[in-house]
Amino acid sequence: MERKIRVLVAKPGLDGHDRGAKVIARALRDAGMEVVYTGLRQTPEQIVSASIQEDVDVIAMSILSGAHNHLFPRVMQLLAEKSIDDVLVIGGGVIPDEDIPGLKAAGIAGVFTPGTPTTETIEFIKNNLKRGI
Amino acid sequence: MDGSATSPELVRSGDQLAIARLISMVEREDPSRLAILKALHAFGGRAHVVGITGPPGSGKSTLTDKIVGALRAQGRLVAVLAVDPSSPFTGGAILGDRIRMQRHATDPGVFIRSLATRGHLGGLSRAVSEATRVLDAAGYDDIIIETVGVGQSEVDIVRIADTVVLVSVPGLGDDIQAIKAGVMEIGDIFCVNKADKDGAERVVREIRAMLETAVLNGAATRFSGLYVARATLGAHAPISPAADQGAFHHIAAQVSGHPNLEIPPVLTTVAETGQGIDDLVKHIKAHETALTATGYLRMRRESNLAWELGHAAAERVLSALERDERKETVGELSRAVLDKKIDFYDALDALEDALTRSH
Ligand code: B12
Ligand SMILES: Nc1nc2c(ncn2[C@@H]2O[C@H](COP(=O)(O)OP(=O)(O)OP(=O)(O)O)[C@@H](O)[C@H]2O)c(=O)[nH]1
Ligand SMILES: [Mg+2]
Fold it and tell me: How far is CA B357 from CA B24, B107, B343, B348, B351, in A?
């Protein structure tokens, strides 16, 4: 049976802006991926735990509140504590350009800001998966 | 590389990553899963498998979340398999059941897995029965399976669950569509959710009336065997498998008008607030007790296995037909029928012969 790309789409932190996350979830579904949508107000612990149980290939997080510099690296830290290194982690939302290098250094493989076409995200995922499909 | 994170020992120890990766191997029908599943076989059969089914949006996920909470309060280990449909066009899926259950995500006593149907009809995914066995061997006490929203005939859940909760809601229209459409037979417990809305009492009355008629008519529904057995033999009397099959109609005839005749419970809940959940969980557990005490649990599991074995065998035959030399035989036989050299049934016999010889 053909291998499906599984993606966890999550909104960490307290902000209620979920349009972008839903747009991404639908775009990935339409690209043939299986998207586990966990909804709003997720703690990094919930995100990592869900990503393990769901055995996803990708964790995709959306933040528009400005809390990305804290929450994104925290998720990477929790994954490292569980010795999980084969999951691709990406983020998006309202994220100032000057914050992006720091997030990448923390292990967020790609950051997608407003105006990025979803096709770009889909290509990025397909080309950067850390596990064989 | 995927398989390296999983093994029978890790699964048995409750390692969530190992369990998750094995379920992924099951989903993609990875042949190397079989050795692990075989090694786990001896440890299965303990868990109580509960199916939650009902129309789209009836509150199945919200109910599941609350049931998980109640079972956890009793200290039980709980796993959930939540099935959502794949898009027939792109093969993609949005698996949204988990949203309602995320408060349990970090509880080490809970394991939640979302599965896409991947083209399988019947309200479940092909992976569900093997995934259930994985979770069973991993030591979960209760395994809850949420089906996709059932339409008319998607009733695979009866082949897997020990106890089926059929969820209904007020306001589905004049008649209780999902319940009438032949899905009613599958419920062991009937749950009218969204009881905060108008019309819940009427739905309860309608379901009760239908169940009473069905039981009195001796309709061989899934539940009536159990209830008939309890009515005639007492709640804790063991009964033999024969009582279920040939003798069933005999027993049913005996109890028509029996004063103790029971129908399955019809309960009301408000999943959002948790109202009625304790009662629902009590009935789910009472059903398990009744199944065990009457011997029905074993019977039900035996007939489910018989069904699953039959289907697996049929799939093997179909894939055997796909092999090149068989395709040739099928081609030859088809041409012979077309040219009126033999008839269809002779061709079928010849094919059956060829298949049984090759095994
Ligand atoms: C709509 C909106 C709202 C709506 C949200 C409705 C909803 N359910 O989503 C409402 C009115 C509720 C709202 C409220 C607030 N908002 Co507002 N809101 C916006 C607004 C105008 C548009 C956001 C949006 O929906 N865009 C459309 C979607 C499709 O785009 P997107 O989310 O950016 O997603 C795209 C990309 O970013 C990317 N992407 C996003 N996530 C991800 C994830 C991954 C993995 C990937 C690959 C890509 C990706 O792909 C998407 C598609 O291209 C923005 C301003 C802006 N222009 O961004 C402010 C904005 C986000 N809001 C803001 C604020 C401050 C608030 C409030 C705090 C206001 C207040 N004082 O009450 C509240 C907070 C509400 C809350 N509970 O959190 C600020 C945030 C400031 C900051 N980051 O420092 C913004 C930036 C406005 C501003 N310039 O000040 N808001
Ligand atoms: N009023 C009311 N709403 C409820 C109740 N239970 C659930 N809901 C709401 O009904 C909607 C659907 O609930 P879900 O639990 O997602 O239903 P579901 O049956 O799992 O849905 P699918 O999986 O999509 O078929 C949500 O908006 C819930 O908040 C209830 O008891 N009363
Ligand atoms: Mg649901």
Answer: 35, 53, 21, 14, 10
